[in-house]
Specification:
The protein is α+β, with helices and mostly antiparallel strands and about 80 residues long. Helix content is about 25%, strand content about 35%.
Length: about 80
């Protein structure tokens, strides 16, 4: 299940996010969205967790949790329809 993480502190790293989610379950991938020009975080990213039950537990446990100076928001990522 792919999760969207929003409201990330701009200084939060991909490694920090991955470690946070790995405390709950297996992480397949972690992608922090970066600004192409500045190379800095845009303040959101995606985590992919292979087990739906662990992904749902991560949403429940980590949504509205303080990470860095911000409270992150975690939810199921919407499928892009083209």
């Amino acid at each position: 299940m792919k999760l969207l993480i929003r409201n990330l502190d701009r200084l939060t790293t991909e490694e920090e996010i991955k470690d946070l989610f790995q405390e709950i379950g297996a992480v397949q991938s972690c992608d922090l969205v970066m600004d192409k020009e500045s190379g800095k975080s845009k303040g959101f990213g995606f985590i992919e967790m292979p087990k739906v039950s662990e992904a749902k537990a991560a949403i429940k446990k980590l949504n509205n949790t303080a990470v860095g100076s911000n409270r992150i928001r975690v939810k199921k990522a919407e499928d892009r329809s083209e």
